[in-house]
Specification:
This protein has 408 residues and is an alpha/beta fold. The chain has two domains: 265 residues, TIM Barrel (Alpha-Beta Barrel); 72 residues, Chitinase A, domain 3. Helix content is 39%, strand content 22%. It contains 14 helices and 16 strands. The chain starts with a helix and ends in a 10-residue tail after the last helix. The N terminus and C terminus are likely disordered.
Length: 408
């Protein structure tokens, strides 16, 4: 307000001895108190709150298997906020209207994970696994009535859990039902995905599907797992997680050779029409096979194929004095070692071969996802990872000069 006659009549501070000094002292005292308060708050925040970890330059999702919770839980507070969404991996579809927690999963551990995920602010998108016998889920989806019941069951499951979305991981079609069933299953699967997506979207939730790779848009023996019809489901789902790993399972070989990964990306883009909803699965694991045997093995307790992870492989290397060799053509590592197997009476010597993907291998596959402008990457799995894997996921944190490709 402009000064008027009454304002002019009020004596100034200069006309009142001591008043200006007291005001200045009061202001200075208030500022000092404010500085002390700000410093105290800063100290409190520094002691009680850690800065949120950064997010990678490409969206990161992760599956969270129950059997790896002992390893993933202690680190989740610092890893979780870097992720877009996480998928608890302990829910099984065991009937048209039944989704249960895997009986081997720890109730305490799974509850602890859910609480941590909520605090981290990451989207929780549980995976539902087809735990039915071969052909049973295909039969459910073939009948419009049972398919609708199954959709309603999943919708209620998501609502009751307050989840952000659902990840459907129905692998029996690909690996148990037989290729001769694919032509019949394919359209029923598409109808199921369309109906489930509509139901979840109506509730403000997302739908992700985790499916094996395809290599083109066709339906030939060279086309990959075309039963899942990338092209028809792409318009309905929010994300397609491509499970581009397990290249070698029964016999020794690479986990996800880099040329094969790229061919699967190219094929998926062709089949889906664009990379916009495609998420590349990242294998932070390996396998350990027996390749030869000398001597007579005991009748029982002879180890067969086992699994290693990026987290556990260094211990195995140290215990067995392995000498890992990088295979440039696959972007992976391998080594052999000898294992004596005995029951005290009979003894044999196994030669075993280990093939695995390490942090540099993760970086190389992430580079492909960036190059092809995919929607993100998904780690298989949380708890299999080690610091080197996270150095690859967040290279600017670990090493600002970290290479984006693996040198030969």
């Amino acid at each position: 307000m402009p000064a008027g006659p009454q304002a002019d009549a009020t004596p100034s501070s200069a006309d009142q001895p001591g008043r200006g000094n007291r005001r200045r002292l009061a202001v200075l005292g208030g500022l000092a108190a404010l500085v002390v308060l700000i410093a105290a708050v800063a100290v409190y925040i520094g002691v009680n709150e850690q800065p949120l970890p950064p997010k990678p330059d490409i969206a990161l999702d992760a599956w969270v298997p129950y059997w790896a919770l002992d390893d993933s839980l202690p680190e989740f507070d610092r890893r979780g906020p870097s992720m877009r969404e996480v998928s608890p991996f302990w829910y099984n579809a065991v009937g048209v209207d039944q989704i249960i927690v895997d009986p081997n999963a720890s109730a305490d551990r799974t509850a602890e994970f859910m609480a941590k995920a909520e605090r981290a602010g990451v989207d929780v998108v549980p995976s539902i696994i087809d735990a039915l016998p071969a052909g049973a889920m295909a039969a459910i989806l073939a009948d419009p009535a049972t398919r609708s019941t199954h959709v309603d069951t999943i919708r209620a499951f998501a609502a009751d859990g307050g989840f952000d979305g659902i990840d459907i991981d129905y692998e029996q079609f690909a690996f148990a039902d037989g290729r001769d069933s694919w032509s019949a299953t394919r359209p029923n699967w598409v109808s199921f995905v369309e109906e489930l997506a509509a139901a979840l979207h109506a509730d403000g939730r997302t739908l992700t599907v985790s499916i094996p790779p395809v290599y083109d848009a066709g339906q030939t023996p060279e086309s990959g797992y075309w039963v899942y019809d990338y092209g028809a489901i792409a318009e309905h789902v929010d994300r397609i997680r491509m499970m581009v790993y397990d290249y070698s399972v029964a016999t020794p070989g690479p986990i996800a050779p880099i040329d094969w990964v790229e061919s699967a990306i190219v094929g998926a883009i062709e089949a889906a029409g664009s990379p916009d909803k495609l998420v590349l699965g990242l294998p932070a694991y390996g396998r350990n096979w027996p390749v030869s045997v000398a001597g007579e093995c005991p009748a029982s307790d002879v180890p067969g194929r086992t699994t290693v992870s990026a987290r556990s492989v260094d211990d195995l290397i140290a215990r067995r004095q392995g000498r890992p060799v990088r295979v440039d053509a696959t972007g992976e590592w391998m080594f052999d070692y000898e294992l004596e197997v005995t029951d005290g009476t009979t003894t044999c010597m196994q030669t075993r071969r280990v093939q695995y993907v390490d942090g540099d291998g993760i970086r190389l596959r992430m580079d492909l996802a960036r190059e092809y402008r995919l929607d993100g990457v998904a780690l298989w799995a949380l708890g299999f990872d080690d610091d080197a894997v996270w150095d690859a996921i967040l290279p600017t944190v670990a090493d600002p000069k970290a290479p984006t490709t693996i040198a030969n």
